[in-house]
Known about the structure:
By secondary structure, this protein is α/β, with parallel strands linked by helices. It has helices spanning about 5-10, 20-35, 45, 55-70, 75-85, 145-155, 165-170, 190-200, 230-235; strands spanning about 120-125, 135-140, 160-165, 180-185, 205-210, 215-220, 240-245. It is elongated, with a radius of gyration of 23 Å.
Amino acid sequence: MARLTTDADKYGQESPSAVVEAFHGATRELARQCLDASGGDWRPLVTGDSAAGGSGDDFRAVEQQLLDSGHRFDWSAAISPQERPEAYKPTAGDGEDPAAFCFHHPDAPVGAPDDDGREQRGVGDNVVRYRENRIGTARYVRSNDRVLAWLSDGVPPDTIAVIDDSGGTLTAPILEQFKGVICAGGTVRSHLGILTREYGIPCLMNARVDGIREGDRVEMECTATAKTAEDYQSGREVTARVWRLPEGDRS
């Protein structure tokens, strides 16, 4: 039995995302319609001599169809867990509910409570050095549903957003309302690192954290030395700590 030809056969590789595939498929369908309208001669379409090549409005309609589908963040939100599953491993049975989710990075340095009851639960690359540490309530941002809800109702006070490296795109509309950001990917030069620096929001990038749950009170060591490009190039370990505060501080 002959095998059906797929887009991967025709175009060399599978699309990495359902959204990418949908966009490519809609664009190819538009090209087919234009070809039919031109009488089946593809040469004017390629050379740009045909008025049947599809207008800007046609392509904007394709884009709007994708935006209306609600999957605008699909690629950026999914790539990190696919490429680094060990950094985004949830507790068994957590599912996708932010209130139940918890990062478990295998290399997160954790420690016993100190004299103040603070329990180290990880480290990250400090974007900017501040005079004081930042304390707030950890809240996971892992879907556009949560972003849209906070756009409508406002970000809860004292929120330290715990996100993956999709956050530059996902959280941009509400970024300035965060008290701090802990990001599981990227570097201090990533888009999210740049945005938080410009907004004056403490941020730890490339964070290796374990056991921080929604509602935990956490402290970011924003007074730690900021990591530089030279540190990355030389492989120098320059990190800031993340503490989980005593259980009684949970909110």
